[in-house]
Structures are given as structure tokens and as C-alpha cells.
Amino acid sequence: MKKVNFKNLSHEEQILVKMAEEFRKDAFCPYSNYKVGAAVLSDEGKFYAGSNVESSIFQTTHAEKNAIDKMAADGGRRILILCCVAENGGIPCGECRQFIWEFCGKDQSVKIIGVDSKRNIAIFTIGELYPYPFGPETLGISPKKH
Length: 146
What we know:
The chain is α+β, with helices and mostly antiparallel strands. 27% of the residues lie in helices and 25% in strands.
């Protein structure tokens, strides 16, 4: 993990932080009141963002999954960088770490940027957050083929 200031992020990383912050504002979370925004940069250079969405049956679409779903629906299959913004630091939960790994192309160096509501920023790799992954490659599947 590395702590950085916003001004020290690359241009693309700054875009991701700003997008995730904006999408966090529109989170639909009337039950938990825990707003999360996320943004993804694909290996095709496209940006996608999402926020968490809750329902009365207590199912939640996590912001990270929302952004990745948009990427996948647009034909994207590989994440270069993911940013998550939440009150306490934006570090993805275990379920999201698994989902992120699905779209990392076996690259444990994919950056995960966690940002809290005061814009404290920590950068991890998916390998640091999810060191023993189970993913498509474990099952002999290549997401690029689908």
C-alpha cells in the first residue's frame, strides 16, 4: 500500500477519483446510508463509473460491480485501474475483490485506488488485496473469448 496526494496521481487516476466521487453522490442507499462510488479504466482506455444501489430485500449492487458491469456490457474485458470512494477509505470488500479479479487478466499488479470522504488516498494492487485468487483461469476460461 502506498499513500499519495491527489496532485501526485496521473491524469487518468485523477479522472477516476473525480468520477467515483461524482457517482458516490448519486448512490441509492436508503437502508445503509453508506454511499460508495467507483470508476474503472479499461485496457481499451475507456472510463466507466457506478454507485451502490440498494433494495428493500436487502440486496445491494456494489459500486465496483456496477462500474465493472458497465465495462463488460460495453465489451470491455480487462481493468487497468479501479478507484473506489467511500466514507472510510474505499477499499473493496471481499466479494468485490473476487469480482475485480475476474477482469484483471491474471495481472496481480492492477491498481486499486481507495479514497475516503476527506480525499485521503491509498493505492494497492489487486495482488495485495486478494493474494490467493480464484478466477476464470482456475477454471480454464478466458474472458476475452466471451
